[in-house]
Structures are given as structure tokens and as C-alpha cells.
Amino acid sequence: MSGLWARYNKLLEAQPLLTKALTSLTGFTAGDLLAQNFVEGGDKPYDVMRTIRLGSFGFLLHGTTGHYFYGFLDSKLPGTKPVTVATKVAIDQTIWNPIFGCMFFGYLNLMEGKSWETYTNKIKADLKTAVMGSWAVWVPAHTINFAFIPPSQRLLYINSIQIGYNVFLSFLGNKEVPEEEKKE
């Protein structure tokens, strides 16, 4: 295990953006696999394209934007004093969280070839749920993250927790908007 950790850190040092994108690919793929196979169950067959969409979101958007966002946040608010940690958590959850939700739903909408109207209906129906659901997980997780996790390891830590959270995101992202909400 220490050899794997050493290789990960070597890759992280040599190719930080690619490494973080790959860890996000892994986290989002695993989250959707868990969602489809163990949470949703039912009569629906496994949807491989859904997993590819979620995994590619992790690789193309989550890992890359997370690399830059958390790097920016750490550069502007260095340190681990309680007020610094609380400020980072507040910025993450009040600014980044809704932006992330819009990116997530937008990416899925685009990859599924759905309309702008479908996207805006999805945002109206589910963004609030996604943001508020995030608070339960990410406020405590990011308090630990910003207080104790070295900046270079932030996205690995996030992706470790993200696997469980992605079960929720996968479910929410693939939930159909009820007809009555589409017309509002």
C-alpha cells in the first residue's frame, strides 16, 4: 500500500492536473456504479452510458475545476486558523457549490442531447436539493479538509468522500423532472 501511495504522490507532483482528473474520474464512476447497482436497483437495466457520462464529468470538469478552484482558494486564504477554515467552507458552499451544481446538471443535459428548457427545468427542480444536500456532507468534510489535509491532497480527500456523495448526485442528476414542474 505504501508503494501505491508513493506512486500516487509522484504522479501528483509530476502531473497534478491529470492526477486530480483521474481521481475524479474514479470517484464519479464508482459513485454511479454504486447508485445504479445498489441504491436504485429496480427493474431498470444497468446503463453503461450513464456511468460514462458521470465518469467523464469527473475527469473533464470536476478534477480540473477542483484543481484550479481549491488552488485559488488556498492561495488567497492560506493557513488553517479556524476563521480561515470557516471562510473557505463558506465560500465553497455558498459560491462554488451552486456553480458546481449548474455545471453538473448542464454537463449531463448536454451529453444527453437535451434542450436548454430541460436544463433550466432541472435547475429549478433540483439545484436547491443538490445545494442543501451538499451542506450535510461537505460542511463537515471541508472543515476537516481545510484544517488538516495538505493542499496537494485536497482533491484526493474530496474524491474519497465524493464516492458516497456521488451516489446522491448520480441519483439526482438522472431523476426525471415531474411534468408539473416542467411547466412552471
Automatic annotation (TrEMBL):
<dbReference type="Pfam" id="PF04117">
    <property type="entry name" value="Mpv17_PMP22"/>
</dbReference>
<dbReference type="GO" id="GO:0005737">
    <property type="term" value="C:cytoplasm"/>
</dbReference>
<protein>
    <submittedName>
        <fullName>Protein SYM1</fullName>
    </submittedName>
</protein>
<dbReference type="InterPro" id="IPR007248">
    <property type="entry name" value="Mpv17_PMP22"/>
</dbReference>
<keyword id="KW-0472">Membrane</keyword>
<keyword id="KW-0812">Transmembrane</keyword>
<dbReference type="GO" id="GO:0016020">
    <property type="term" value="C:membrane"/>
</dbReference>
<keyword id="KW-1133">Transmembrane helix</keyword>
<comment type="similarity">
    <text>Belongs to the peroxisomal membrane protein PXMP2/4 family.</text>
</comment>
